[in-house]
């Protein structure tokens, strides 16, 4: 054929080989993404035979990043982001500082320049949001409290990286590189512009974009989505969703210097204000999944297998920093911020990999002659290996969590020491701590239950993992303790031994059985009420006599059926 079909060839090869190797990986009981990475290596320039267009694959991967972040935004409200700010903001900044210092120390040992070490360390400090999202979605914990912390943490990392990408060209000359003569990475002036001017312009652009999305976008885009939905055309609705995701992401980069990923994330958050957000997420899911595969395949195409033979010790050191160094630093930081060990393990596992922003930083470091070519090869190889190992790291968190539960008296003491939110104040009247309801979780369901109990004057104590929520509840005069109710100490602080009922309203049901066992051990006559979204989980809980169990969809169907029948009965009696 006379015309160029490299785009079609690249998509066909990436999806075809991705399907084949993804299937083989799952048959070998490996994560499918390992197969996608292998497919990228097979069709990449480092292996013989067919070679796909690397540049086109990279652009397709960018679309995958946009759609994935857009999907997160559809499930992640501004309230969710604000709720985790006290752990995500300081934790992400300190973790970046620690990981960057480790990378700089390693680069200094190898004899690299200060600028090369800085770029190298920053590239190792930034985790891949796409990899994290896939891991959380596969485990069904994206909407959990710990999942929101992990996503919020990476959003802060992305914001920091945007600033770094703009400031590096301005600092290149003083760091031993070549100063940029043109505009910086995101349209901010570089070269002759001062550091403070560059920083002010960058912050102003980001602030302008966020303000525009919050003030105008929250009203405009949901309205547009509703107008399209009124046409009754499914394809127009899907087109509107995808156009919003990709269009806002592109505009955010072109006009405001915000990355594609963050632009798409905010696009999803503003569309979440629409009543059609759930439908938008459902309609865009197949396309998001397909382009996510293209992202992992494109990462595999960048891999240079020769690095395994030429620099094995250096590569091992890089993987150690990414998988071990970052994880340990994040674990300790979360504990120091007085969050439970389960949250610390989740965040540390989430950060044990690097991805798309690391590639961008490495490319910029090369163009500014700050980092040697060897550094980019090590970063790419470290990304491939850490992404492949990430599912294993997540699996390790479960036995570690159980080990801490069995042997973690010292850790638990450290975790809760000097934490005023971990214990009820002595001023709480004793009559409120006898026959009370212990309510685990204060989300959409828990808050409604609490409101009903308050209206009827029934005393209750809330056990909630989110410290900010507990702090606000106490300011509002509600008795609450902070912590994971799967730990006996939390229920003991809620005075479960004297309670009349345990109500588990949290969507995170992993520790439900532990909560019930603790409650019954301390209070054999206590009644239990459990919320779950899974029929399988409900069956297991019934087998263990967990008390009253409410399944979300079944209860909704039951309520709607009762309404329909009552209305039909009234209509018939009126005739």
Can you walk me through this structure?
- It contains 24 helices and six strands.
- The model is unreliable at 181-193 (pLDDT under 50).
- Helix 22 (512-522) links the parallel strand 4 and strand 5.
- With 575 residues, the chain is mainly alpha-helical.
- It has a six-stranded parallel beta sheet with strand order 3-2-1-4-5-6, sandwiched between helices.
Secondary-structure map with pairings?
Layout: H1 6-27, H2 32-43, H3 54-75, H4 78-83, H5 85-109, H6 114-125, H7 129-138, H8 145-171, H9 195-229, H10 234-256, H11 260-271, H12 277-301, H13 307-310, H14 312-336, H15 341-350, H16 356-367, H17 373-407, H18 409-416, E1 437-440, H19 444-455, E2 460-464, H20 467-475, E3 480-482, H21 488-493, E4 501-504, H22 512-522, E5 527-532, H23 535-543, E6 548-551, H24 552-574
Parallel strand pairs: 1-2, 1-4, 2-3, 4-5, 5-6
Helix pairs in contact: 1-2, 1-3, 1-12, 2-12, 3-10, 3-11, 3-12, 5-6, 5-8, 5-14, 6-16, 7-8, 8-9, 8-15, 8-16, 9-10, 9-11, 10-11, 14-15, 14-17, 15-17, 16-17, 17-18
């Amino acid at each position: 054929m006379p015309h160029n079909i490299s785009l079609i060839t690249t998509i066909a090869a990436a999806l075809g080989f991705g399907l084949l190797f993804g299937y083989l990986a799952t048959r070998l009981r490996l994560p499918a993404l390992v197969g996608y990475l292998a497919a990228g290596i097979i069709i990449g320039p480092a292996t013989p035979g067919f070679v796909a267009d690397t540049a086109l694959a990279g652009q397709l991967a960018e679309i995958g990043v946009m759609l994935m972040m857009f999907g997160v935004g559809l499930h992640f409200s501004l309230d969710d982001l604000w709720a985790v700010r006290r752990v995500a903001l300081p934790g992400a900044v300190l973790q970046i500082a620690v990981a960057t210092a480790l990378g700089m120390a390693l680069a200094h040992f190898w004899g690299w320049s200060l600028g090369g070490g800085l770029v190298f360390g920053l590239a190792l400090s930034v985790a891949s949001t796409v990899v994290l999202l896939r891991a959380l979605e596969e485990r069904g914990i994206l909407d959990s409290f710990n999942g929101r912390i992990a996503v919020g943490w990476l959003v802060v990392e992305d914001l920091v990286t945007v600033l770094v990408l703009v400031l590096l060209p301005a600092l290149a000359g003083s760091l031993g590189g070549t100063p940029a003569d043109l505009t910086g990475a995101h349209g901010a002036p570089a070269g002759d512009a001062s550091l403070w001017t560059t920083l002010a312009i960058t912050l102003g652009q980001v602030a302008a974009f966020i303000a525009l999305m919050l003030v105008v976008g929250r009203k405009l885009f949901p309205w547009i989505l509703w107008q399209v939905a009124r046409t009754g055309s499914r394809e127009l609705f899907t087109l509107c969703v995808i156009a919003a995701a990709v269009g806002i992401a592109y505009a955010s980069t072109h006009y405001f210097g915000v990355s594609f990923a963050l632009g798409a994330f905010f696009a999803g958050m503003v569309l979440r204000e629409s009543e059609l957000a759930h439908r938008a997420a459902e309609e865009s899911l197949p396309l998001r999944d397909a382009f996510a595969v293209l992202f992992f395949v494109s990462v595999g195409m960048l891999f240079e297998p020769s690095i395994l033979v030429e620099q094995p010790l250096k590569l091992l050191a890089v993987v150690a920093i990414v998988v071990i160094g970052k994880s340990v630093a994040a674990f300790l930081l979360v504990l120091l911020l007085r969050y439970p060990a389960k949250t610390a393990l989740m965040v540390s596992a989430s950060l044990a990999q690097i991805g798309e922003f690391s590639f961008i930083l490495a490319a910029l470091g090369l163009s500014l002659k700050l980092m040697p070519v060897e550094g980019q090869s090590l970063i790419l190889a470290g990304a491939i290996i850490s992404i492949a190992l990430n599912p294993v790291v997540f699996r390790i968190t479960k036995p570690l969590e159980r080990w801490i539960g069995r042997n973690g008296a010292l850790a638990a003491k450290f975790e809760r020491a000097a934490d005023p939110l971990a214990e009820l104040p002595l001023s709480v009247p004793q009559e409120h701590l006898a026959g009370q309801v212990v309510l685990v979780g204060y989300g959409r369901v828990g808050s409604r239950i609490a409101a009903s109990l308050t209206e009827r004057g029934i005393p209750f104590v809330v056990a909630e993992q989110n410290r900010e929520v507990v702090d606000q509840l106490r300011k509002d005069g509600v008795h609450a303790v902070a912590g994971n109710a799967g730990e006996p100490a939390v229920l003991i602080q809620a005075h479960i031994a004297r309670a009349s009922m345990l109500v588990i309203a949290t969507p995170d049901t992993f520790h439900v059985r532990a909560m019930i066992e603790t409650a019954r051990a301390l209070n054999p006559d206590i009644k239990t009420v459990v919320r779950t979204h899974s029929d399988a989980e409900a069956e297991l809980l019934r087998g263990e006599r967990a008390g009253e169990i409410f399944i979300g969809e079944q209860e909704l169907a039951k309520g709607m059926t009762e309404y329909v029948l009552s209305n039909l009965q009234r209509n018939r009696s009126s005739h």
